[in-house]
Amino acid sequence: MSRLLHGGLVDRSRTLSFSFDGATYRGHPGDTLASALLANDVRLVGRSFKYHRPRGIVSAGSEEPNALVELRMGARREPNTRATTVELYGGLIAASQNRWPSLAFDLMSANQWLSPFLGAGFYYKTFMWPSALWEKLYEPVIRRAAGLGRAAGRPDPDHYEKANAFCDVLVVGSGAAGLAAALAAGRSGARVILAEEDFRLGGRLLSEFTNIGDGPARDFAAAAEAELAGLPNVRIMARTTVFGAYDGSTYGAVERVGDHLAVPAPFAPRQRLWRIVTQRCVLAAGAFDRPIVFPGNDRPGVMSALALATYATRYGVSAGQTAAFFVNNDHAFAAALDAADAGVEVEAIVDVRPDPALAARAEALGVRVIQGEVVATSGKRLSSVTVRTAKGSETFKVEALGVSGGATPNLNLTTHMGGRPTYDEALCAFVPGALPPGMTVAGAAAGAFPLQECLDTGARAGAAAASDLGFAVPRPDVPRAEGAPAGISAFWHVEAPGGFAFVDLQNDVTAKDVALAHKEGYRAVELLKRYTTLGMATDQGKTSNTAGLAIMAHLTGRSIAETGVTVFRPPYTPVAMGALAGHHRGKDFRPTRPTPTHRWAQEQGAVFVEAGFWLRAQYFPQPGENDWLTSVNREVKAVRESVGVVDASTFGKIDLQGPDAGRFLDRVYINTFSTLAVGKARYGVMLREDGIVMDDGTSARLADDHYVMTTTTANAAKVYQHLEFCLQVLWPDLDVQLASITEHYAQIAVSGPRSRDVLVKVVDGADVSNAALPFMGVLETTVAGGIPARIFRLSFSGELGYEIAVPSGRGEALIRAIMEAGAPYGITPYGTETLGVLRIEKGHVSGNELNGQTSARDLGLGKMASTKKDYIGRVLAGRPAFLEEDRPIFVGFRPLDRTQRLRAGAHFLAVGAEPTTANDEGYMTSVAFSPTLGHSIGLGFLRNGQKRIGETVRAYDPVRGGDIAVEVCDPAFVDPQGEKQRG
Amino acid sequence: MRIPCPYCGARDAHEFAYLGDATVTRPDPAAPDALDTFSAYVYERANPEGPHDEFWYHAAGCRRWLKVTRNTRTHEILAVAFARAEETTP
Amino acid sequence: MADMLADIAPTALLPDGHYGAPSEGVRARLLPGGSAASLVARRGAAAALAARFAEAGLVLPAGPKAAAAAGVTLVGTGPGRWLAFADDVGVLPGRILPLAQGLAAVTDQSDASLMFEVSGPRVRPALAKGVMVDLDPSAFGAGDAATTTVSHVNLTFWQVADTPAEAPAFVFAVPRSFAPAFLRWLAASAAEFGFALSGAGRG
C-alpha cells in the first residue's frame, strides 16, 4: 500500500471496494479512481495509442492523457474515462483498454519496434496506394491496433436531460481566483453561478500546504464555500464542467449528476447538459502543469510534479515508495516540498536552474537538490532515473518522478470564439488573447500564478463584473496569502541520446516526430498538429501543446511567439452523446403529433406512417389482407365505387381576415381570389419569388373580408411564414390579419359517389344538394347534433367529395358519426397510401412534383396564371429558360406491357438512345398500381411532354435494373373531364 | 447566438428563422427591366464582413419579421427592429 | 428513468397519476375546456382596440403579459396580437367579438390548445429543463407571459396573476397535437421531484 499514514481529504473512516482489471482493491470516499489505484500500488493503467507502451497516471485532473479506462460493465460501459476525474464509489468496476491480450503483456507493443515506420505522417505516406487495400486491409488492421476504448454497443439504460440557467456572473473554476470572484460578485447581490468540474471546491487550494489569512488554504476554501452556499443569489454547481463558450454569452456545461454513483439515483439523470446564459463570465480555470520532454518520460511512475504532490497532500497517497522531482520552476519545487511534508520519501529535486530559491528549505527537510537534467529512466514501472549534471551523470533508484516544465494557463474557453493566445516570455506561457464578449480571466488561467495574485485578480474580476451590471459591490475583502517565489527558467526538451522522448503521450508523438514534421516542411502549427496528431484526441493537447510548439520553434530558429499556437474548439472535455440528446431519444426523439382521429384509427387497426411530426393512418388492413397493396386496392375501389373517409386534418389551415384579404391573396397566388364569390373555394398555386412553385391548396371565401386557406401538410409553417413576410415586409400597407387554425380544426374528407348520401345523414338538416352546395361550394352549418362545422365541397380524389371541418376536439365524434351514417354504403376508412393512389389516378400534383425545381408551367398549371395582375414569382417565372419548349413538362405514363411495374426515379430516354446524361429527357416522380385501371401508372416530367402524348419512351432505372417502354399520356387517368366530382 | 426580440426579449437564435439580406427591396414588377431587377433581387447578394442588416423571423415567438443588424464576423447583434415600422410599439 | 414512459404510447396524453419520486414537487392539471380566440388588431388599430377594451374593464396587455378580468384572460403574444381565454364558453362570442368589431380579427381557437396549470415547490427547476426563458422571480413574475418553444413544442405560457414568487403557478397553452409530447417532456423533467398529473383522465 502506498497510502500515507495520515493526511489528505479522504474519509479514512470508510472504505470503498472497487475492481480494476478483475482485481479487487480498496479506497476511501474522497478518492478518485486514480488516487485509489496509486494507493493500491497499481501504476500500470493502460497502453499507449500507437506503440502500445505501458502507461501510468500522469496528472490529477481532466487534462489526463494516459489513464483512460473503461468504466462500468455491460450497457453502462463507458470508454476513455479519465481515471483522474472518476470519483470513487463502492463497487466501481474499471478496466484498462487498448491492450491485447492483457495489460501486462500486450502483443501490439511490438509496434514500438516498428516505430521507424510508424512516425509522423505514417498513415498519409503508407496508405495512399494501392487504394484497393484501404477497406480490405489497412482500415481493419489499424482499427484493431490503434484506437481507444470500446463503446458499450447497447442502448444506454440511463437517462440524460438538458436544462437552462441564467445568471449575471458565471464563475468557471473554484480555486483561489474563482472563490474570490464568486464571493466578490455574490456579496453584491448579483446572480452568480460557480461551476467546478471537481466534486470538491477549492482547486489547488486543496493540494498546497500554504496559508491564507491565519489558516491553511483549504480552510479558506471551506469557509468561502460555506459563505457562498448561504447566499440565496449564488448557485454552486460542483461536478460541472463548462465545456464551451458560445455566441450571446452562452456557455455549455455538463453536470455529472450520477456519475459518482454505481447507478444514478431513482428518477435522476446521469448527466445534465446545461445551457448557461450569463451577462459576464469570470474564467478562473487554473493552469496545467506541463511536462519536460526527455527520453523515457512516458514510463509509468513519471508524472506531473503537481499531480505527484496532489496525490500526497489531497489524497494521502505516495505515488511511489520513493520519489524524485525534475523541475524548472519554483511552484513545482514548492510542490515537491509539500509532497515531502506530506510524508513522501523525496530522494532529490533535480532542477535545471542553478540555486533555486527554495533550495535552502529543501535542504532543511533533508531533500537533495541537484542541478541537472533527467536523461533516462528504466524499469517497466519506473525503477531508476539517470541525471546528467555538470559533473557527469548519476543514476539513482526511485519509483516516482514528478516533472514540471512550468504552468500552462487553462485558457481553453477563451479561444472558442476565435481568440488567439499570446506568448508571455517572462511567464514562459501562452496567456489569453482576445476574449469572448463579457469574459474576464483571473488567477492562473490569466497567468497570474502566485496565490496572492489569484485572490486579487479573482476578487477584482468578480467585483468588476457585478459593478458593470449595476450592482453595488462592497469593498473587496481579500485575505493575505503566504508569499512564495514564482521563478521559472524556460526549459522544454532534454536533448540526449536514447529512447522515446514523448511530447504528446496520448497520441504517441515524440520529439523526433516534431523534427520529422519540421524536416518535411510541416512547420506551421496547424500543419504540425495534423501531420503528427500532436494535440488531438480526448485531451486535445492540454499538457503537450506548448512543449511541441517550443521544440518546433527551436528547430525553425523562431521564437515561440512567432511560431504561434493552435486554438481550441468546444468541447473542453468530451461530452457524452446522451447528454447532448437529453430527453430526445427513443419515442421522444422528436414530438409525435397524433391526428384528431388517432384513437379511432387505432381501433380500426390502422397502420401509421410519420409525416413530419404527424402520425397519420397509412392504410387500414382488414382480416385476411396480408400485404398493404391488397388493403390499398380495396380502399381505392371503395372510394371509386361507393364512399371512403380519411382524416385530412394535417393540412395547414390559415385564417385570413381584413379588408385587403382578397387583394393580398391575388398577390400571393398565381390566380385570382378577389373575385371569388362568398361561399366558394378555389384551388390556388403560390410561387416563390424565383418562379418555382412553393405550395398549392384551396382557399375559401367565408365573407367579403374573410378567407380560409389550406396548405400542404409539409409546408404549413413555411407558407404561414411566407405570408407574414409578404404582409410585414413587402406590403405593410395591406390590412390583413393572419391566424393559424391548423390545431383548432379537424378536417375529415368523405369521398366517393355515395358521399352525399352520407353527408345528408351527418348534417343537422342543412341542404347539401348539388344545387345548394355545388362543386367548390362552402357551407357553414352544424353536424352530428350541434357541432359547428364548415363543409367544403372539394375533391382530391376526383370523386364527389366533401371536407368537413369541426373543432379538433370533436373530430373523433365526427368521424364516428360519418362511419355510422356510411355503414349502409360500406363506408371505408382510408389512409395516406390510398390518398396517394387516388391523386395519381386523377393526375393531381403533390409533394413529389412540387419538388422545388418546377414552375407552374412545368406542372401543366401555367394557364391558371392570371395575366392581369402581379403576384409573387410572376416576373421570374417568365424568364426565358422557364419558357423553353424543351423543358420537362408534367404528363402521365403507362407501361406498354401492362404487367410491368413502373418505378419513381426512373429517367426517360428516347427508344434506342444511349443512356447518357445528354440524352436524359426527364424523370418519373410518382407511381402507383391503379386498381381502377388494373395496371401500373406513373406521373413525371418529360421534355416538351404535353406535345408528345401517345409517344413511346423508355423509363430507364439502372439502379433497380429497370428499362421499360412507356406510353406518354394525359396525367388524368381517371375521369379526365372532371364529371364525377361535379355530379 | 441570442437575438433581443423587441417584443419577446432576448431569445436563443434557434427560435428564429433566417432569411438574409434586409437591404434589398422588391423591385417594381411593372418596370420594363423587371426581369433584370428581379434577378438581382432574388439572386445577387453581397457577402459583407462586419455589420449587416438581415431579416429574421421570430418563428417560435411573436411571429414578427425583424430587421437585425448583425456583425458577420463576431455574431454581435448591433440593432433589432420590427420589419414593419408601425410595430415599434407593441 | 427513460423506462417510466417507455410503455406509454406517445400519441395520447399521459394518464392521470403519480410519476417519479414519491414526493410531489411538481403538479400539473389539465384545465377543463373553455373557449379561446386569437385577436389580431386591424392595421394601426391596436391602440383604439386597447382603449375600447379598457372602457369595458378589460386589459389588453402591451407586451408579453397576461391580464385576467371579468372571467377573461388576455395574453399578449405579439405586437397587436393576443390570445383570449375564458372558462365560460359564452364569453368570447358574447363579449369579446362585439368589442373587437371593426378593430380586430377574432378567430376561434377554442380547440387549438390544451391548457395545463403547472405548479408545485419544484416547478421552476423542472421547467428549466425545457423552458429557455429565465423564470427567476427577478426576471419573470406574476402576470408575465412568453411565447416560446419548449422541447420542440411552440407554445404560450404565463405565470398566473395572483400566484406569489415562492409558490408560482404557470399556465401552458399547448397546441393540441403536441400536448402528448409536452406532457412526456414535463413528466420526465419533473420525475426526480415527483410529479402528479390530474385532469387528463385515462390519457
From TrEMBL, chain A:
Signal sequence annotation: none
Positions of the GCVT N-terminal domain: 598-869
InterPro entries the UniProt entry points to: 2Fe-2S-bd_N, BFD-like_2Fe2S-bd_dom_sf, FAD/NAD-bd_sf, GcvT/YgfZ/DmdA, GcvT/YgfZ_C, GcvT_C, GCVT_N, Sarcosine_oxidase_asu
Residue intervals of the Aminomethyltransferase C-terminal domain: 890-975
Domain SoxA A3 as annotated: residue spans: 501-582
Molecular function terms, GO-annotated: sarcosine oxidase activity
A matching Pfam family: FAD_oxidored
Family of this protein: Belongs to the GcvT family.
Name the UniProt record assigns to this protein: Sarcosine oxidase subunit alpha family protein
Organism: Xanthobacter tagetidis
From TrEMBL, chain B:
MF (Gene Ontology): sarcosine oxidase activity
InterPro entries for this protein: SoxD (IPR006279), SoxD_sf (IPR038561)
Sequence intervals crossing the membrane: none
Annotated protein name in UniProt: Sarcosine oxidase subunit delta
Superkingdom assignment: Bacteria
Organismal lineage: Bacteria, Pseudomonadati, Pseudomonadota, Alphaproteobacteria, Hyphomicrobiales
Species the sequence originates in: Xanthobacter tagetidis
Biological process per Gene Ontology, one example term: tetrahydrofolate metabolic process
